[in-house]
DNA sequence: TTGTAAGCGTTATCAG
DNA sequence: CTGATAACGCTTACAA
């Protein structure tokens, strides 16, 4: 419980605290001799500056807030790894929060962060988030906030996404080309942009084909796995079941896999399946799962670079209002082939 | 960029800052009328207290540091979710760091945290960590540090593990019972305790059987996936290959799956496989993978509860020097059955 | 080149 | 019940 602070070092060295501070910060106005002495003692006593005193003084916390809707998901884990890779080079720290796809939780987290605990926020909104009032608050406080994947489309800031429309379109075309005539689309929520864009791609692909289309083919899923399971089974059992499924998020595809197995249908013979997913072992599944995988790590890196450029450079680089698209990759595997 | 602080509120209300502070903290020595007025304005102006000023004053940050060796791993993600579930009830925040299985990185992270940025640390050490000098520093500073899964055995603190020995033993017995005569053990590192304990269980199971045993059956793996792949193939191709594999960590099992597929061997006919893993979709693999899965979420919760009890209670509950074991579950699936 | 003093936003202590 | 003041540890004008 030692409290080695600048004052203590100053006493030991018989210098003024300010001198010690300057020496530690390698100020040009301190002699090399003094610097050496200070550094030596600091090292010996393992002095660590109090970050909160610094933050209070500088109005900077060297901390970034990261908010994700789900932690047990490779995509988000990879993004955070990407963010951390960059931020730690600048000595920044990461406060990470899981909103659990819950807007109320999200609002609570945001309100914590409003007090200046973080210098910036990078987030993916929950699937329930429709209003962005709480997010605008953040900007009003002058805290930069940027989005990735699940973006708040109308907010004037930089948003990173992948080519959701194109990917949804390509995946659907791929299913059609492989003989699917009745393709369902699994949607987590209409609120979130990625859902909308991926859906739009799907719809356009269907419309551009000779397939009919029915509203019911777009399946609104819930957050509850069991409910989804019942829902899926309910449309898998009847004779007029789908022969293709495009899932907009990994979680739903997993449930679909299970539902299909339970109904004794076969992938890909009876039903072909594609999902957006960043899982590492899609090729080990039975059958190997066709995925649209996002450049998660790179998204994280770019988010962080943008923020670091804005926060740490002397000539501050502004955060523009724009959407940056980093393309996904359609990895074709057996689950979608004849 | 408004700076709504206590002083500002005090001016507006024509009160002293200390009164405002007390009112906001619902002090008993403030009249209800005053409280109401203060609260009202605070709400109206969306006042948020500056956490750093508070931390500086109170020598408490309401922040916990979490260090894990790997982020893209369900086990660690689940543990963090468990930690967060508890800590957020107490208004605590989580700084999360990934050591990437690198001791040097781990040391760097620890040194950041030494300045009082966090009130406590909960961590799983990297597979390279043999010396615990840097970890002892933390304790010397009076910062509580507890461990889970990859523990620093000799440090006087609470460590959460699962029944690694028993699980290793049971899994090996299960393989033997199912006809394996030559079982390899995949080890990430001899340094880490879980490796040692799981290995000890394996060894005792072999010794207690009529099987011979050779040193070479314990495979020292590296951090590099490609190297491991080559290594695995090198012992899979020969005629005297193993007919069973027990992997002490998920990552190695995945590589083994790939290696086995590439060598055209069949699981479980040619080789049976079991791994420690918390993946959600083990049953969707081809073949479904037998796993020893840990109560990750519960481990996280217990870690957090221990810390919260120590940090937030008026009669501080000490962190004892002991090991708490929460049992894992052997989930038998096709990969290990005849 | 070094020392003095003020202040970042809060809260605890002491007075009134 | 409320107000003035000091202090947490650090940095930065300003002074020497």
Automatic annotation (TrEMBL), chains A, B:
SUPFAM superfamilies: lambda repressor-like DNA-binding domains (SSF47413), Periplasmic binding protein-like I (SSF53822). Keywords: DNA-binding, Transcription, Transcription regulation. It comes from Cecembia calidifontis. InterPro entries: HTH_LacI, Lambda_DNA-bd_dom_sf, Peripla_BP/Lac1_sug-bd_dom, Peripla_BP_I. GO terms for molecular function: DNA-binding transcription factor activity; transcription cis-regulatory region binding. Residues 4-58 form the HTH lacI-type domain. Gene3D superfamilies: 3.40.50.2300, lambda repressor-like DNA-binding domains. This is LacI family transcriptional regulator.
């Amino acid at each position: 419980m030692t409290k080695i602070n600048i004052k203590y070092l100053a006493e030991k060295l018989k210098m003024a605290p300010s001198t010690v501070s300057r020496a530690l910060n390698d100020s040009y106005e301190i002699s090399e001799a003094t610097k050496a002495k200070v550094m030596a003692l600091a090292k010996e006593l393992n002095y660590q500056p109090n970050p909160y005193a610094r933050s209070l003084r500088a109005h900077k916390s060297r901390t970034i807030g990261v908010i994700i809707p789900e932690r047990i998901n490779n995509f988000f884990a990879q993004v955070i790894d990407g963010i951390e890779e960059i931020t730690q080079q600048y000595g920044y720290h990461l406060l990470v929060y899981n909103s659990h796809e819950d807007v109320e939780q999200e609002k609570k987290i945001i309100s914590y962060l409003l007090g200046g605990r973080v210098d910036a926020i990078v987030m993916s909104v929950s699937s329930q988030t429709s209003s962005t009032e709480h997010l605008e608050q953040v900007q009003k406080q002058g805290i930069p906030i940027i989005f990735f994947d699940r973006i708040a489309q109308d907010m004037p800031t930089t948003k990173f996404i992948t080519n959701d429309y194109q990917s949804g379109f390509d995946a659907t075309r791929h299913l059609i080309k492989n003989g699917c005539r009745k393709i369902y689309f699994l949607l987590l929520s209409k609120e979130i942009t990625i859902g909308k864009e991926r859906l739009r791609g799907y719809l356009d692909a269907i419309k551009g084909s000779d397939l009919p289309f029915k509203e019911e083919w777009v399946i609104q899923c819930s957050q509850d796995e069991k409910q989804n399971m019942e829902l899926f089974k309910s449309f898998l059992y009847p004779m007029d079941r789908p022969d293709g499924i495009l899932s907009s998020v990994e979680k739903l595809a997993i449930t679909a896999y299970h539902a299909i197995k339970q109904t004794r249908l076969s992938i890909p013979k009876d039903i072909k399946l594609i999902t957006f997913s960043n899982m590492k072992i899609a090729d080990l599944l039975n059958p190997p799962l066709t995925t649209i995988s996002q450049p998660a790590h790179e998204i994280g890196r770019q988010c962080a670079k943008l923020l670091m450029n804005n926060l740490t450079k002397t000539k501050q680089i502004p955060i523009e209002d724009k959407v940056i698209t980093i393309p996904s990759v359609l990895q074709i595997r057996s689950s979608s082939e004849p």
